[in-house]
Amino acid sequence: MHRAVFFFTCFLGCTLAAPNSEVPKLRLGDSARPTHYAVDLTIVPDRDTFRGVVDIAVEIPTPSAALWLNASALQIQDAGFRSDSGAQAARVTPGGSDFIGLSFDRPISGRGVLHISYEGKISRNSSAGLFQMKDGDQWYVYSQFEPTDARRAFPCFDEPSFKVPWQLTLHVPKDNVALANTPSLSETNEPGDMKAVKFKESKPLPSYLVALAVGRFDVVDAGKVGKTPLRIMTPRGKAAEAKSAVETIPQLLKLLENYFGTPYPYEKLDSVVMPISNFAMENVGLITYGSTLLLAKPGEDTINRQREMAWVTAHEMAHQWFGDWVTTAWWNDIWLNEAFASWMERKIVGEWKPEWHADVTAVNSRIGAMHQDSLISARKIRQPIDSNDDIANSFDGITYEKGAAVIQMFETWIGKDKFRKGIQLYLKQHANGNATAADFEAAISSAAGKNIAPAFDSFLDQAGVPEVSATLDCTSKPKLKLAQKRLLPIGSKGSAQQVWRVPVCVAYESGGSTHHQCEVLADPRSEMVLTEAKSCPSWILANDGETGYYQVGYNEALLEKTLADKGSHLSLSERVGVLGNVDSLIGTGDISPRVALKLAMEFSNDPNWQVVASTVDIAGLVKGRVVPDELRAKGAQFVRQVFGKQATELGWTGKPGESEDTRLLRQKLVPFVAVVGEQKELIDEAVKLARGWLDTRSGIPQEMVNPVLHVAAEFGNQELFDRFHDAVLKEKDQRRRSRLLSALGAFRDPKLSRAGLELILSKDFDPRESFFALLFGPLAYVETRELPFQFVKQNLDQLLARLPREIGGDYAADFAFTGNAFCDASHRSEVQDFFQDRVKAYAGGPRNLAKVLEVIDLCIAERKSLAPELSAFLKAY
């Protein structure tokens, strides 16, 4: 990160001087504590600088001649301290990229006010602090302060435990709308076509949840929930696109109020749209969303967007209680915010739309988290935070999805009603304050009537996935012989000797009835007597409901019992979970590719699209990285023979009156058969449809536009690349731009793939929208998977100059992931040699590189282990 540059003037004239103490390493310490902020900012959206004044009421318990505050890239013009004993000018010195020091001639103490005037930057390539985005010909300014970027907007105590009231005043152009966390108190005209908007004082907030937005917004009334007014704030001219958001958000907010047993805790709720894709932030009373999440043109909406909007809005609104009303004390417990909201989004949306099968979504998310968690480089859920690297790494799948899965497991074990009472107790005890994991566990334990902390902590405080093997023993009273170890992929250098306190819940059939039983597995080995079994069960599911955060180590005999009669005795989420379990166990060597692929064939025509989607995931093995190049054509043939007829019948465009499930199956199956199965008819049709869409922006069902364009690009030529490029240069609609950029990153032709990579450096594209699609798209194909890494090597300085560099969103930290497609020792050495020193400068970079190197090592080992059997299967097929 670059060092901030500071310019100073002082009340009485001063010289540059350092505080008497060392620059903090990460945290500010307890030498001063804020009690109130008054922030005054002058913002004009098409200008790249702003002016600010902040008055921070502080308490200083011990007399001190020096204080440290957080500030980044701010030009300090004036600083001082006033109290009942008088006023003093401050001498100011930079403290690296994150701090400023204030020194005084006489020690200051007690209560007083720090007064600081300054200027700052409004970024056009970052999404940190205050930043600009353009929609059409209109500029807008937004804030994004999580995790540590409030310091880019004002000097402050930028840690979550400093939670106090804030009062904002914004000076903005008269024709702009100014928004903040609270309702406005007044608007006053000022000279030069400006106005001052003063906002109500907020409830106690940490700095990262303070928020503002300025621009020519359209204001869409979304009614009220209770006494809370709801609005959708869209870029100018987009109000009509907020129709489904207006319908959805109030319904979900009502369900959240009901679950928490208390009204929404703030005065208003604005949902503010930004012209960017797939982003959201839970700022108090002012939630920001990427436009592709919240808006849809009439006639262009899709099933996926509607569902994604519901998940994300439920997630962000859940944060208003869990994260905002009650805030974590430090970043090591950020999982309390994000895991809880991820778990809650599925619970609330599942209640609202049960036909969407949120339980299946939860199962698939858990399986994805387990894949990440199987690496020895994986984080703990509750990871110590000792550096900016640790903060950056804490916003990952372990925090969100593993955390959510662990919460669901304990809810199942404790019981839904008791768990809900525990949550309500936790919120009541810590309202408007901060809390820790221990506080959360204490509240849940109180409601549960038992201490859950030892079991919960065994998942919070150690990385990894328990693999629980279960063997059915019916020699006397039926029982399960259980054993646990750490789940490790083939070739892992980790130790399997790890123990959790696992709430193991099972379901089984005996005497014509289904029985359910839970016990805590606390030892490496144990036995569970099946208390209701009158005879040997005809089937047994070792993860009842598929809600436990553990991998079942099925042997072939037990798996056969579990999936007997195509699993007709299992729920939909259970069948998806067992098949996902099978897919995972291929990588650990516990299930052979032959067994897994035969199951994929057996379930490939299941009536539920979610089950078919699970078989598609398994079948992807036949063209994965472990398959020798000379057998990839055989893998494609397998896919065509198993799935081709169904995919051809579905086609790209469908028929009138189809169910949503049929349309969702089409999205999963047809592009898979076209790409992995290389089915020519589907490829040719995709290219034809894509060309037509480029002409008319029609002719393809909305939910199929992305896959059609993507498949067409994969097999496209220079002429099609040029058409995509021309189209995205002219396109103003954010969703269409996103689709076109994704397609530009999908060409398999190495020459065209390189041309797509070069566009990352083009000034024609905002790097915030182009970076991921263009850099990582080529990793998917044998022909182009080396190009992103080589591109980064050749253009690193230009990329660093162009791309955002901020904590929690340092794009440079993601460069290492360009090595993820490699599966050989030579490329591994090349990736390590290039990145090992460089990643130290990127927030979160060292852990990202460790993950990449481990993934390459595991691929090498997996290829060596699985390729012989997989090759034999394909040759014989």
Explain this structure.
- The protein is built from 25 helices and 27 strands.
- The longest helix is centred in the last third of the chain and has 32 residues, at 845-876.
- It is globular, with a radius of gyration of 28 Å.
- It is α+β, with helices and mostly antiparallel strands.
- Helix 20 runs parallel beside helix 22 (767-776).
Cα-to-Cα separation, first versus last residue: 55 Å
Major beta sheet summary: 9 strands, mixed
Rg over CA atoms: 28 Å
Q: Estimate the strand proportion.
A: 15-25%
Principal-axes geometry comes out as: globular
Structural class: alpha+beta
Low-confidence stretches: 1-18
Instruction: Average the pLDDT over all residues and give the rounded result.
Output: 94
How many β-strand runs?
Answer: 27
Number of helices: 25
Helix content: 25-40%
Describe the structure using short key phrases:
877 residues, alpha+beta, 9-stranded mixed beta sheet, 5-stranded mixed beta sheet, 25 helices, 27 strands, globular
Question: Could you give a quick summary of the protein structure above?
Answer:
This protein has 877 residues and is α+β, with helices and mostly antiparallel strands.
Write the layout of secondary structure elements.
Blueprint: E1 33-42, E2 49-70, E3 75-83, E4 86-89, E5 91-94, E6 99-121, E7 129-135, E8 138-144, E9 166-173, E10 177-180, E11 184-190, E12 194-199, E13 212-215, E14 217-225, E15 228-235, H1 243-260, E16 269-274, E17 280-281, E18 286-290, H2 291-294, H3 303-319, E19 326-328, H4 334-352, H5 358-373, H6 388-393, H7 397-414, H8 416-430, E20 433-435, H9 437-448, H10 453-460, E21 466-473, E22 479-486, E23 502-510, E24 513-521, E25 525-529, E26 540-541, E27 551-552, H11 556-562, H12 572-588, H13 593-603, H14 609-619, H15 632-650, H16 660-675, H17 680-696, H18 705-714, H19 718-730, H20 734-744, H21 750-758, H22 767-776, H23 787-802, H24 825-835, H25 845-876
Parallel strand pairs: 1-9, 15-16, 16-18, 19-20, 21-27
Antiparallel strand pairs: 1-2, 2-6, 3-4, 3-6, 5-6, 7-8, 8-13, 9-12, 10-13, 11-12, 14-15, 17-18, 21-22, 22-25, 23-24, 23-26
Helix pairs in contact: 1-3, 1-4, 3-4, 4-5, 4-7, 5-7, 5-12, 7-8, 8-9, 12-13, 12-14, 13-14, 14-16, 15-16, 16-17, 16-18, 17-18, 18-20, 19-20, 20-22, 24-25
